[in-house]
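User: Fold both of these, please.

Assistant: Here is the first one.
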Amino acid sequence: MAIVAMAAVSPGLAARAAGFPEHPVNVILPYPTGTGPDTVMRLVGDKLKGYWGQPVTIENRPGSNYWSAVDAFKRGKPDGYTLFQTENWMIALQRHIFKKLPYDPDKDFVPVAPMFQATYFLTVAADSPWKTVADVVTAAKADDGNITFGSSGVGSAMHMGGAKLQNATGIKLTHVPVKETPQIFVQIANGELAMAFGTASTAGPMLRANKVKFIAIADKVRNPNFPEIPTFSEAGGPADFVHKSWLALYAPEGTPKAIVDKINADVSRALHEQDVEAKLASIGFTAWTSSPEELAETLAEETRAMGEIAKSQNISLD
């Protein structure tokens, strides 16, 4: 995947970056108001307003495969005053499951700043006999293709979790898309679905009601908020199995590097303020900060991996 080149730093650009921003900054989101990404962006936006002395406006444009938000973003100038917040699945996956996109994923987005990660847990009914990933794999091999897993739709993070598990273990599962994410965990509790990949946020209400249970976390290390939940490897599953959603900020092609670096530094500062970290933890997220270059490398690797899974599992929305 090509990494978008940012405008070189000249004395004039450096001076402009030092004074940035001189008027409000607009962040476009493909998510509804009140969702996790929106909540985090508003928290960080309030911090940035304090640092910058300028408002940070949030423009919610949900729906249409995120394309309405992308269209609005592409109309922005490459000056740092228009930003776009989205998750890894959009830029890394959509190119593999749609034959045609209304944007160029390699050229239209300059990586600016990662924001947070949400790790997934393999979730089953509280009374399920499955206690480990090994139990699930054994059952799936014995009942080839009949065990179900729920997701919020084709190409969603939950769908890709199930696809990734099938790829890593060689099992076959039946994918069942469900329109409303909370209903997935209700159906698991009721025995209508066998399992799903859920986060602490999405599966949390049914977990706290003792209707579902986590049998493994899709990460290389345990989560300090759920120290009793083993990793996939510890639970007899594939070694180094990781499945996360992560969100980041992007700027239009041609945005000066000095401005990108300034936004990156200030977003990173905001994410590590104590009250922001506490709020993220309360909704099951973990702050993630790194350089624009490291974000670009992570995105490139995610793009490669998602392409392999989409191809092997025949995932398409065309």
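And the second sequence with its predicted structure:
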Amino acid sequence: MNPNNIQPEDLISDETFVAWFRQTDPVHITYWDNWIAEHPESKGDVEAAVQLLKLLDLQEVRPAHAETLKASGRLMAAITEEKVIPLYRRKTFIWTSAAAAAVVIFFVSFLFRGTSTTQYITLAGETKTVDLPDGSRVILNANSSLRVAAGREVWLEGEGFFSIKPNTHPMGFIVHANKVDVEVLGTEFNVKQRSEQTTVVLKSGKVRLTMDEKKINMAPGDLVAYSDHTGKIDRKVVNANIYAAWKEGQMIFENASIREIAGILEENYGVKVEITDSALYGKEFNGVFPTNNSNILFKALSKAYNLDIDSTGATIRIKSR
């Protein structure tokens, strides 16, 4: 099959590809695994064909949006004016009106990609667990949002901890965090996208990052930080548990500066932190504190560095005594 001219409809009309998709023939599975690995430029068409076959497997077709309904109506009208040619000629594969509708909705989803996703949002001081259709799980930190598309692809703003279920398909799982794409097969990792920086910390497994066409393969314990503004990439080995402690209701600080702590408070609680004495910026602090009671942290900071910490409304002021 020529990868330069391949289309999703060509793939789903190929019996060997369908056998690969259904995992029913070892010979065809091996052939298509190798073909996909050798032709990465066809990944989009393969993914589109996989999604279409999944839709055709559904017993009921559910339009997701009013615009989708209107567009599918127009396309269905056009389809009924032409002879429908079966795409797959096995006797056990019969095109029904539901299957035709599935094709319509599949292609309409590309036209209305922005309306075919589900979005999850957390407020200040709130965390949320999101179970994805493929069995994977995402825990969202405060002030974050997760947009989930069909298949194994999500868009993150804020911070989330991902536990990705391994998948037999070579498509993997993709997290888009501003200008950083995280590709995984089965692993646990934390992604933080705040302001102009994206930070990925890998707890277990393997992931590959793509940033401005540069790729980095991460190992467990790696931290990679990417600056959206400058394009600078920093990489180091860390204790991954510290960066994901928030999902257990904890804030863990290990040689964290007061300025870094102030930034975390602003990101997660939607407050403004004012440090009146710049000499305090570099002061380092260690400890474990609950995320639901910031007063415990304030008391510890105040005692450690003889500080006055005043919380008024959405503003926290830190100054030396």
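The longest helix spans residues 43-57.
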